[in-house]
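In response to the reviewer comment on reproducibility (Comment 2.3), we provide here a single inverse folding case reported in full, input and output, so that an independent group could reproduce the run without further information from us. The structure tokens appear first.
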């Protein structure tokens, strides 16, 4: 499935018209339109906004918030690696992805925490059926943030 997401990313296929502009204006440097298109498939994105530094929110035409990515800075990578697992249900990060899923109350919510240098990355999905495609899109957002200028240069 990551190959499909990579193909969508490379070709831009499946990204509704206007979505890249909404993402760039409302969530610059934190979100790319391709994984958002996977998460919001079947919905019209009505609003992408940033109320706080290093975070944003995505709403669909029904008025529901469906996505909230954000970053929290720590003093160092070591501190991030020590404190981020405390946000995990298991208290541990997956060794391969340096991330964890936080337990969710229903199959329509997902929160992932991850280490990105000295940053804690948080990506939360609400009110959409969580399946493997959604999980892979969230992991893509995490990877995009890890490779962004924001987490690599500060």
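Designed residues, in position order:
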């Amino acid at each position: 499935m990551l190959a499909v997401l990579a193909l969508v990313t490379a070709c831009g296929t499946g990204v509704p018209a206007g979505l890249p502009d909404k993402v760039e204006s409302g969530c610059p440097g934190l979100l790319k339109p391709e994984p958002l298109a996977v998460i919001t498939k079947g919905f019209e994105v009505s609003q992408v906004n940033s109320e706080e530094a290093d975070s944003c929110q995505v709403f669909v035409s029904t008025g529901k918030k469906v996505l909230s990515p954000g970053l929290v800075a720590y003093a160092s990578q070591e501190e991030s690696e020590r404190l981020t697992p405390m946000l995990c249900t298991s208290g541990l990060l997956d060794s391969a992805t340096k991330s964890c899923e936080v337990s969710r109350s229903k199959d329509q919510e997902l929160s992932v925490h991850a280490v990105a240098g000295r940053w804690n990355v948080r990506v939360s999905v609400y009110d959409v059926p969580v399946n493997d495609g959604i999980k892979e899109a969230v992991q893509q957002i995490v990877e995009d943030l890890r490779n962004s200028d924001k987490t690599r240069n500060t």
